[in-house]
Structures
1.
Amino acid sequence: MSGTETTTTTPPARPAARLYVPLLIGAAVCVTLGVYGRLHHPTGVAVNIAGFSSPMAVKVWLATGATVLALAQLGSALVMYGRVPRVPAPSWIGTFHRWSGRVAFLLTVPVAVHCLYALGFQGYSTRVLLHSLLGCLFFGVFTVKMLVLTRRGLAGWLLPLFGGLVLTALVGLWLTSALWFFTTVGVTF
Amino acid sequence: MRLRGPIVTLVAAAAVAGALLVLDLHATGARSAADRPASADRPAGGDRPASGDRPASAPASASAAASPSPSPVVPSPALQAGPPVTYAGYTTGGAATVAIAVSGEQAIAYLCDGRRVESWLHGTAAGGTLTLTGSHGGSLTGQVANGVATGTVAAGGRQWTFRAPVANPPSGLYRSSAEVRGAKVVAGWIVLPDGSQVGLLSSAADPDTGTPAPRLDPATGAASLDGTPLDVTRVDGATPLEG
């Protein structure tokens, strides 16, 4: 949270003012999720998708799908910004980036609801604490990124910065949950 | 107009989250209403399952708790609140023993085969679902229902299923973290309801090499290593696992 707020000091004064609202809303999302996860009495169960061996397996595969799509986000963004040598941006790349991003984000929503409702914000090990913090950060930063998209006249590097933060948070979430699940429980459906 | 897309994305995601939350409240709200009378008539420290104590005049709530419900896991009334409970039992086949101490939403478990494999695990027991992780690649997932914990436990690259009923004192889970002649040692004992015990002792410097723990007197909590008395505590779910 404080990490995103410090960026308000770096851009010049006028465009920075346009960043206050997205940052404040993002920080509010971040803090709200954390406080809810901490205060809500975890139920241990929540509505889930049928057909998997356990609620954890559902979340692991949804998170894996979201992470794969998030890596596609990185790839398509690099192409859009012309950062991939000898690969000109095709006309459909923007649409692909938007829709793969929407699907990826949609996949994370049931995972987060299950996490917050059934398990809560926990800190009994480094992995779990890191996962809880990254979970709150991910939704806060994603909100900021979406709101920054709607604002004109902001510094051009802001979008890649927040996109990168979203990707970093999601990959961190995947590493502290799904990868842990695959290595300790096994690759099960 | 195109710039409104991100807002639509955020609102749509929030709507999906809200809908899921309403479904959750609906599913678990009905459940906790069915559970509340069960936890009220559960005798403190009793090892009989709550459904067994319930009068036959309550078949509706009994079947509601036992039959498959919309929620994937049948919750344990014993875990909603109440005193700390310890479960102790064998893995399938009897190769190792597992003890799980639960206090509120916190849980500590110990897996031990008395020879080589051991793991101390720490995690949550919210709503009767056990989710623990621990040393030596340990993980434990399971459920608590009707006074019995069942599930899967893994450590040291191996995996077992287990079934552990309530273990009332003097049976249960014991731990000692002590300094013996300058070396820090950690010992764990699982005392099963039949009186048998399994334990391992390892030094903090070499946690991967365990030796069978010295015999513990569960009645007095006394054990000694090479003549040095060990400070043994009966673990509940909130005991800190220092060292």
2.
Amino acid sequence: MPFQLVIRIVLITLVTLLLSGCGMARLMEGMVQTNEPNERMLGQLFAVGGGGKADIGDDGIARIAVEHHPEETVWRPAVILMDRPGDLEILFRNRNPQNHLMIVASSDGGMRALDLPPLQTGRARVHFGTPGMYMFADAMGNHMGRGMMGMVVVGGEVPDEARLDRPPQPRP
Amino acid sequence: MNRTINCTRLFSFLLPVLVAACADAPETGPETQQAMPIASLNAASPGQAPPVAQAVTSERLVRARSEPHNWLTYYGAYDGQRFSSLDEIRTGNVKNLKVAWTFQHAPMTLMAAHPTYGFEATPIVIDGVMFISGWNGYVWALDATNGKLLWEYQHAVPLDTPLCCGNINRGVAVARGKVFYATPDAHLIALDAMSGDVAWEKVFGDIRAGETATVAPLVVKNLVLVGASGGEFGVRGHIDAFDVDTGKRVWRHYTIPRPEEPGGETWGNSEAWQRGGGTTWITGTYDPELDLVYWGTGNPGPDFRGNLRPGANLFTNSVLALDPDDGTRRWHYQWTPHDLWDYDGVGENILFDRDGRKLLAHFDKNGHLFILDRTNGEFVRAVKFTETTWGDIDPNTGAMTVHLRPTPEGTEIKPGPSGGKEGFPHAAYSPKSGFLYVPVIENTATFKTGPADFKEGQPWWGGDVETLDHPQSGALKAFDPATGREVWASSSEYPMAGSVLATAGDLVFSGQLDGHFAAWDARTGEQLWRFQTGSGIHSSPITYSVDGRQYVAIPSGWGGWIAGIAPKMMGAPRGAALFVFSLP
């Protein structure tokens, strides 16, 4: 078999697999039935934008990008995981012809507001000082009620000096 | 070469197809937007307050009574009397009180314990500037003459904060140019009093272990003192002291001793101390002459399963007299040994003198008013101030007799878990009338014991209480601490859950859960004036003056532990507004 033909077959197979992979992903989303505007309301059910982990850079700041795609009312990812308390930088990419007004909780200077015009990108730097769950939401119209909210889940522990002086206790 | 060209052509063709197939959205434009603190997007707020707090020294706090135009510290003064010598507003003209200004705020997103948020803080006023905390991490500086927002701070509170009873806060402390604030997730934050910027921040509780905070800090000398909440989560209570200027922790006092420490023998179980409770969620009082801080402690854990912690369970449900410099305990008095009813002993300890004797008054959740000698904790007398069926305190010796305990099938007991008076709100004492004034809750609950499997950070009651199906009401009562005599009582259709303010105008102010803020004649109990604020009062009124004009301020906003205090008001209007009144 000529080498050129082999290359062509391999490439076509690869492309076919990739295309079918994309199609399968869409098919699976459709099967869940929560990821598209449904018949009873024009929004989506809560937090179906998936999860993503914020990577901590050399400067100690965790970073992640979230996007709003057309014909969806979720942020992807909608759940951001941070390994420990600290600074988080979220890049909000608006790939949708809608305006958004992002509200992000922060312990450093209070709640942040980010105006996000259609097809624009914006950055929010926030700080979370305690392990736990923090919200980000779209304050435009009722985007929040229609699914455009998300959560930052911060792991880790409080500083040792703040912990109780007692033996380790069973956790759930 | 031909192979390379062909492959390149193939990639050139396939790559756009691939991208088009998988990417179903247009690319975004350039990064053009930067997030801003939302507080900076309020053109009506200058973001700056006058430098009134710079000169608030510990000496001024000791002499707070000599500055009646200010409300310098949580109770107005270290003695916890909640009394003001201002008398422009008095019995003869209180009917003319009108709203001078209001301040409102509301949540912008979901927040921790959203259905329970309330406005419970005590405002601090210094030379025309008011500092007040709200729910969900808010602190505000306001112009005390017109309510203008000078600056705003917000701390991010995790949605999953293990709040037992509500997203609320009791207030701030102000000294040496800083505003001290304990967040719901147990951070102590020092804010620059002029800008609201963070000067320092320390974590003093473990949210993963179920610790939180609602307390208003107390500044004593060069230290700022805070207590933590979490008595329903099996924590080990403590009081912490931090350096005012640097935030360095100077001491921590655990309220539950280890087995080898004094009091450790009162736990009867080698592990019970580790989860003993005894939390410290209400601000203490301070006697500068004796140099003693009086701080209350909460219920033992688990709340209703006493068999897991046999013994008196020191130092829960007690008042601790502490050396403020190092946290050493000088003496203690336990109001309810081996508590089985969630009758925290955290409530205020009012310091007053009578017949040359230095005394301390405490209205306990167990339904009894206690009078102690505050120099040494010696029992003076006890008086029942509401109906109790759980048991009795001997008025002459303080000895406790228990009649009713929680049972697996449930036992009806008075008072319910909110007590005859909650740990919060607070009573008052008028040195002018010589009377104590107390907001009273009359209720019953069915107490049940139940499973008590402990997991850190999870509620640990060892049973439950049913409150909804029982009658409930309340009263504002006056007592003579010299004799224990009830002087007057003004009944209320609902439990009284607002703190009392006593003034030299012979008035007492308090609020009711139907939204009325009212004034009573301090000597007769006759209600002289009231105003409908629109939401239940579960907060602490204060009074102050600016340029000779007296104001009375009250936060309105029903929330907190509604199920325990007044379950029949579960559906009453919520809200969050500060009302300030003055004469026309």
